[in-house]
Design brief:
Length: 805
């Protein structure tokens, strides 16, 4: 900011915009020049003489010479060179400050830069000039002389004002009361006596403040009006008024007298004590009435029943002496009913809480505790049950004996409902955590199970190829394969529950899925069960795996069929819903948002609460042994959660069951599921395949299958061995066939390393723990680069040709 100011001043002077003072050209100036170069000093003198000044010009070169010159005479201006061998501008400024003289100090130099000029101005210099631009000398000199003259005038005026204030303060010190010098606009100067008063301490407030900053807002106009009347009429006015100061009402007697044509003297005398003596009884009565009114207002503002009772709580004669009007709002009973019936509060306590509440009140009445809080239920006049919390304190006589109780009772129904909702939410969380733990276990089991099934299915298929159709052993092999297929189905159910099943999510129209499955579902449930579908035409789209949604419908339909052995009705419904906060708290933990609902309900035998608490647990079933695996609803729960939805069930014994599933809606249009055409190409090949698999049985099977198909196989038991094989193998490797989950180096990391060296290499991932492939390990799930376990030799052969071709 200072640099900007200096640059602006320089620009103004150089452009000719100078500020001349009224000084005659014959004026004599005393100039002290601090300069070691006589030619430079003569040049300054030449410019001053040419401007018409009579100059007393004295040049000094050392600090001692400067001090001597200042003692002899106070110069009008000091012109100082920036640097000298034995002196400096900073030292000269320091000497000037020591003397206390107010003399314009102008820095003159030929090499001073902006930074040094700023430092000099900060140190006290008034201006600076460049030796190559002395045309600014006279304008700068005249401006600084003018400013010095103004400073001297202000000092004289301030000294006169202080003397005047001292005289006025001495006059007013002899007066009593508060004294104000006030003008017609309400601005005042407060002149406080030597003794502190009710209105303030011994400080003095300056002119410029307004009365409305000292007096109350509603009094400001009153004071200004009185001042103006006194000034216009040129006579003294007397008034009495009250002010509230520090929360206390004070009375004053004031007189306002004209002092000048524009100001008056206001004298305020405190007459509060006299006023109180004259009207003490009236004032006390008004105060008591005000306190009563305040107390009534406080009680009326309490959102609860304020009451006071005399006598022991368990005595039939206990009476209610006071009860607030809020009792009628909360319970419907009038104040008169409470006051006219002894022990009324206990008579409306819920029967299940009455004995306990009476005992607690009696114990508190006799205890030494200052207060007591208890919860119980009141029965309102209209039959409503209201949960309340009552806090009471004992009333004691002068000897400390309890004689009654007083307190406040509030409605805590909302709090109770919130606590109940919280308990339900915590229970849902515990159930979810339990199911999550089971899901992790199921996923791990399915992973190992899929490896075993791969071996079983693979060798069964290889064995079947070696047998003729009429061979008796072929029947045994087929049974082994069928058992493997059932095991694979069981593993898929476990993976669906654990949310680690590979999925192909698409934007799905639920109505289309239900319509396409309707015929199959009718055959599945039988003729004695009537199937009804209620499909809203504008139902929103969801994003899920269509196959999984079909699996959900199948499992729920089978459960409904088993729950209606004598026939009944099965209803499948779709609808758009917007879950609000209460419904999401009560039913499902789903964020409030537009959702699509799939509801499956039946008229079967239903379930009790105990059964409902376990229906989503794996292997839990109410069916007879051998009729169910206990994985149907277990699988449904996993699929719904994997699809980002939530499931809610409502059931009562003999009244049927309803499952409601809520899926988040998406804005995209539904995607058609196009069938994949079978390839007519041969499944054999001659390419080189690097096989990385840590399970020895699976690795041996895959190796045999690949060799039987004509492929060249490089076998590695882990990722590290695969890297070594790739480094040593000199010929091209066409495809990496790798398990995703392996110790030390996983399939994804192995593929990344090898692709960096051989970008032409193709990759096919396999895994029996498909969730890791699709999620945890960052493998993008696609039909051309991922093969889930278990797989058959034929499936592996087709997948290899898809990737390689």
């Amino acid at each position: 900011m200072l640099r900007a100011s200096i640059r602006a001043r320089m620009a103004g002077l150089e452009s000719g915009r100078t500020c001349r003072i009224e000084v005659g050209m014959e004026r004599e100036l005393s100039i002290l020049n601090i300069e070691d170069s006589k030619p430079d000093g003569d040049l300054l003198l030449h410019h001053l003489l040419r401007a018409g000044y009579q100059v007393i010009f004295e040049r000094v070169e050392t600090p001692a010479d400067m001090r001597a010159a200042l003692e002899e005479r106070q110069p009008d201006v000091i012109l100082c060179a920036c640097t000298m061998p034995h002196f400096s501008a900073a030292a000269a400024l320091a000497i000037l400050r020591e003397t206390g003289l107010d003399v314009p100090f102008i820095l003159i130099s030929g090499i001073v830069g902006e930074e040094r000029a700023v430092q000099a101005m900060l140190a006290g210099a008034h201006d600076y000039l460049m030796k190559d631009n002395l045309a600014r000398l006279v304008p700068a000199l005249e401006r600084e002389l003018h400013e010095a003259e103004n400073r001297r005038g202000r000092r004289v005026a301030e000294a006169a004002l202080k003397a005047s204030e001292a005289e006025l303060r001495a006059v007013f010190a002899a007066m009593t009361g508060e004294i104000f010098l006030v003008d017609a606009d309400g601005r005042y100067a407060r002149i406080v006596p030597t003794k502190p008063t009710r209105l303030g301490d011994s400080s003095t407030e300056r002119i410029g403040k307004t009365l409305d900053r000292f007096f109350p807002i509603d009094k400001a106009d009153f004071f200004i009006k009185e001042v103006r009347c006194a000034l216009q009429e040129r006579k003294m006015h007397r008034v009495k008024y009250a002010l509230t100061i520090d929360g206390k009402e004070l009375w004053f007697e004031g007189s306002v007298s004209p002092m000048t044509e524009e100001s008056a003297i206001w004298v305020a005398r405190d007459i509060t004590e006299r006023k109180l003596r004259d009207a003490e009884q009236t004032w006390l009565s008004d105060e008591l009435r005000g306190q009563r009114e305040r107390l009534r207002n406080i009680v009326a503002s309490v959102p609860g029943v304020v009451w006071e009772a005399w006598g022991q709580p368990d005595a039939a004669t206990q009476r209610i002496d006071f009860v607030s009007d809020y009792v009628e709002t909360m319970l419907g009973y009038s104040v008169e009913e409470w006051l006219s019936t002894p022990n009324f509060w206990l008579s409306i306590v819920h029967p299940d809480d009455r004995e306990r509440t009476a005992q607690a009140a009696a114990a508190h009445f006799l205890s030494e505790k200052s207060s007591n809080t208890r919860q119980f239920r009141w029965v309102a006049k209209d039959g409503r049950v209201v949960w309340v919390e009552s806090t009471s304190a004992a009333i004691r006589d002068n000897e400390g004996r309890p004689v009654g109780l007083r307190g406040v009772t509030i409605d805590i129904g909302e709090r109770k409902r919130a606590e109940e909702a919280l308990c339900k939410s915590e229970e849902r969380l515990r159930q979810s955590q339990k199911l999550e733990a089971v899901g992790r276990l199921a996923g791990g089991v399915a992973h190992d199970f899929n490896n075993l099934l791969t071996v079983i299915d693979g060798y069964s298929a290889l064995a079947a190829e070696q047998l003729k159709e009429a061979d008796p052993l072929r029947l045994y092999i087929d049974e082994i394969r069928h058992a493997g297929e059932r095991g694979a189905s069981l593993a898929r159910q476990l993976l669906a529950f654990s949310r680690k099943q590979v999925v192909q999510p698409k934007v799905v129209d639920l109505n289309s899925v239900v319509s396409e499955m309707e015929k199959m579902l009718r055959r599945l449930i039988g003729e004695d069960i009537k199937l009804r579908t209620i499909l809203r035409p504008d139902v929103g789209y969801i994003k899920a795996d269509p196959g999984q949604i079909e699996q959900v419908l199948m499992n729920l339909a089978v459960n409904a069929r088993d729950a209606m052995p004598d026939g009944g009705r099965l209803t499948i419904e779709t609808a758009n819903v917007v879950l609000d906060q209460p419904s999401t708290t009560q039913h499902v933990a789903l964020a409030p948002a537009p959702s699509t609902m799939l509801a499956v309900s039946d008229t079967g035998i239903g379930m009790d609460k105990e059964t409902q608490a376990h229906i989503f647990e794996p292997f839990f079933t109410t069916k007879e042994p051998g009729r169910g695996t206990g994985l149907g609803l277990f699988t449904v729960y996993g699929i719904v959660n994997q699809s980002g939805g939530k499931i809610w069930v409502y059931s009562e014994p003999d009244r049927g069951t309803a499952f409601k599933i809520y899926f988040p809606q998406v804005e995209e249009g539904a995607q058609a599921c196009e069938p994949i055409a079978e390839s007519a190409k041969s499944l054999r090949g001659s390419e080189t395949i690097l096989l990385a698999e840590d399970d020895e049985l699976v690795r041996s099977l895959v190796r045999e299958v690949l060799k039987s198909l004509g492929y060249q196989v490089l076998e590695a038991p882990n990722g590290g061995a695969a890297l070594l094989i790739c480094e040593r193998h000199q010929r091209p490797i066409h495809l990496l066939l790798t398990d995703i989950v392996m110790p030390e180096i996983g399939g994804r990391e192995l593929a990344n390393r090898l692709l960096a060296l051989h970008p032409e290499m193709r990759v096919l991932y396999v895994s029996g723990y498909t969730g890791d492939g699709a999620g945890h390990h960052g493998i993008p799930v696609s039909e051309t680069m991922f093969l889930p376990k278990p797989f058959t030799p034929n499936t592996l052969a087709r997948k290899l040709r898809e990737v390689l071709d």
